[in-house]
Amino acid sequence: MKLFNSQKIKTTVTRIYKHFVPSREDTFYLIGSFLIAFFIWYNVTDRRLIEVQYDVRLNYIGQPQHLIVTEGMQSHASVRVRGSAQFFKNLNAGALAYNVDLREIKKGPNVVPINFNEMSEFSSFEIISAQPSRLLVSTENIVEKEVNLDPIIIVSDSSIEASLKERPKLSPEKVTIKGSERLIDAVGTLMVPITLVDVKKEGSYTDSVAIITPQGVEAIPAIVQAAYEIKEITVDVSLTLPITIIGRGDNEKYKLSQDTVDISLRVPRDKVESKSYTDGVLAVITPQENQKHLTQIEFFIPPNTTILKTSIDKVEVEKIK
């Protein structure tokens, strides 16, 4: 007796296979249905309305040559637009720019309209808001006048000082300045800073120097020639001097609160390495008869030397014998 009928099992499996596994024809129908559904979903999603805010660069065109804008110019505007999502894909946000037309502006305050609907990039969108929607710009006449130049010597190293034989000579001595009427009226003279970067020796020098002008003022020419002669170069040096007692008897002895004093000097550069010159710098005191007293220190320096500062100017003296 057979427990299983193989023919019935085969028939059952075949029915189950046909029920769950579609035929070739049914498979094509299923794939086609899926593609159609995906296409419909994509188009519905891609056509939904969204809002996006952009920064639009403002370019200025047509400004009259005799006018200068002093207030009101902005570099960017903020524009919010609404449109279909598919149109935003082709929009290059970094290249958005609007040309502000200044051909009609006059001297004084002006209202300049901005119409972002004119931009071809926004032709497929609805503009919700724009800031600013207009510009309030102020203008002044551009004027010119001739002014004098004032040369100033600047030494880059603060420990060095250069003495000039005479005032530097500039070529040209006057320049033309150009700018708004208000700024030009406020300018009397212009500074020409002559910076001595590497002062090595005395002698004659010629440099090309840029003129310092206020913001919004143009100097014509902007660079002049400066001729000058350095007569003497002095440098700062620091020394520690022993305090010498003078005017005492042979058998008199004194005790000082400190035996040395620090001194800063400005001396000619060629004398810095001269021991005989620096040895001429002395710090001396003349004690009094009192047993213990405060005495002024006197400093003796060579010619062409300047005392900048000293660590102390008085010392306590005590007679011990």
Overview of the structural elements:
The structure is a single chain. The chain has 321 residues and is α+β, with helices and mostly antiparallel strands. The termini are far apart. The protein has four domains: 6-46; 49-132, RNA Polymerase Alpha Subunit, Chain A, domain 2, CATH 2.170.120; 142-234, Beta Complex (RNA Polymerase Alpha Subunit, Chain A, domain 2), CATH 2.170.120; 236-319, RNA Polymerase Alpha Subunit, Chain A, domain 2, CATH 2.170.120. The mean pLDDT is 83. The strands form four sheets. Strands 8, 9, 12, 14, 16, 17, 19 and 20 form an eight-stranded mixed beta sheet that branches. Strands 2, 5, 7, 10, 11 and 13 form a six-stranded mixed beta sheet that branches. The longest helix has 23 residues, at 24-46. It has helices spanning 6-20, 24-46, 85-88, 181-185, 275-278, and strands at residues 49-61, 67-71, 76-84, 97-101, 108-113, 126-131, 134-155, 160-164, 169-171, 174-180, 189-196, 203-210, 218-220, 223-245, 254-256, 260-268, 282-285, 292-296, 298-300, 306-310, 314-319.
